[in-house]
Amino acid sequence: MRIALIGFMGAGKTALGRKLAQKYGLDFIDTDAEIVRDTGRSLDELFKESEKKFREKELEKLAEVSRRDNAVLSTGGGTMQTDGSLKYLKDWTVVYLSLPIDTAYNRSVGVKTFMRQYDGFKELCEQRAPLFERICDFEIYTGDEEEDSFERLCRLTEIEIRKKRG
Ligand code: S3P
């Protein structure tokens, strides 16, 4: 079982992904956290230094972790915008965690200090939403209470588990 979560910042990729992995006995992989661990630097620092270099590291990390199995993978909000990223998720069930842009912004503001102002954030989300919609296998709404979003994600995961069992 391989489940990859994609979506905007604030969609719950990390929080819901970690809970999902725990519930179904899967590994939890968070590409951002692994990059921070490998480099010993914060996302803020990496971003300030060079977004381009960060994107290269992100793609390398995706290539590395995509070979793993029995895992829930939380991608960074910008990962799928990098050319060549999609091929690494071909053996994964790709779930787009979707929510209104304003909700994503309100959840992220103050947490991600490198984050752009509202207009920039909105523009980025508007660019990414059609991409996420196109590449996902499933879309789950996560703009409401965490327990409700988690329940929807669990229901989908159970269907996928049943399908895999045949
Ligand atoms: C980014 C989202 C972040 C992180 C990086 C860039 C983006 O991940 O990868 O700061 O471009 O949207 P989350 O979506 O997990 O916050």
Could you give a quick summary of the protein structure above?
With 166 residues, the chain is of the alpha/beta class.
Helix content: 40-55%
Gross morphology is: globular
The overall strand count is 5
- Mean pLDDT value: 94
* Total helical segments: 7
Strand order of the largest sheet: 2-3-1-4-5
Beta content comes to 5-15%
**Cofactors, ions, other ligands:** shikimate-3-phosphate
The SSE order reads EHEHHHEEHHEH
**How does the major sheet shape up?**
5 strands, parallel
Low-confidence stretches: none
Decide which structural class fits the backbone. alpha/beta
Distance between the termini: 13 Å
Describe this structure as you would to a colleague:
The protein is of the alpha/beta class and 166 residues long. It has helices at 13-24, 31-39, 43-49, 51-65, 101-108, 118-135, 146-165, and strands spanning 2-6, 27-30, 71-74, 93-98, 138-141. It has a five-stranded parallel beta sheet, sandwiched between helices. α2 packs across α4 and α3 packs across α4. The chain is globular. The two termini are 13 Å apart. The mean pLDDT is 94. Shikimate-3-phosphate binds at residues 9, 13-14, 32, 43, 76-78.
